[in-house]
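Here is a typical protein record:
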Amino acid sequence: MMELSIVMPVFDEAAEIEAALSALAPYRRRGVEVIVVDGGSSDGTPELARPLADRVIAAQRGRAEQMNAGAAAATGDVLLFLHADTRLPENADRLVLDGMARSGRGWGRFDVRIDGGGLLGVVAITMNARSRLTGIATGDQALFVTRAAFDSVGGFPPIALMEDVALSARLKRIGRPCALRARVTTSARRWRRHGTLRTVLLMWRLRLAYFLGADPAKLARAYGYAER
């Protein structure tokens, strides 16, 4: 039986981290490993995380670097990368392992819902449909992958943005994803902060620019990530 490790990259998530990790307690009781990878938080995130995770490690700030560090520290045969503001559906561990066993595929993702109504519901439907059509997954969909497949493509490329899209493109060379219709729930905070429509249009523009060859570091600055 394959074993699962959940890797959560964090940076200044003191307001969210205890709820995020408490939601994973049932998985830990079933033997799922939970690793938190901190990117240099200054708000006490690692201290809050330690009692609620199997391991809390430090890495250079940046989701790609943090998730690669978490993967290197994990002991599971399957890695699931989870954002701190995303909640898994019930029995997600079993859904992942059973889904991969039935499909014979080396990687996959969940459908997603966004914690908010109105236009955000349409955004989630569009994200799921696009992912199903293209085979590309985003971090909000809780991407999961066997260690063998992850290692074979070299893990996440060390870029400042679109690391999830880039990893999906690499994994597609191995095969299509196991697309689970069970939905993770991700926070609407990103959309609410700058406005739903504005955020959607920005992400479309950044994704198009990435596929046309734009520098991910410049895209990250346009997205609002602070300089490291």
Summary: The chain has eleven helices and eight strands. The first strand starts at residue 4 and ends at 10. Residues 4-223 form a domain with the Spore Coat Polysaccharide Biosynthesis Protein SpsA; Chain A fold (CATH 3.90.550.10).
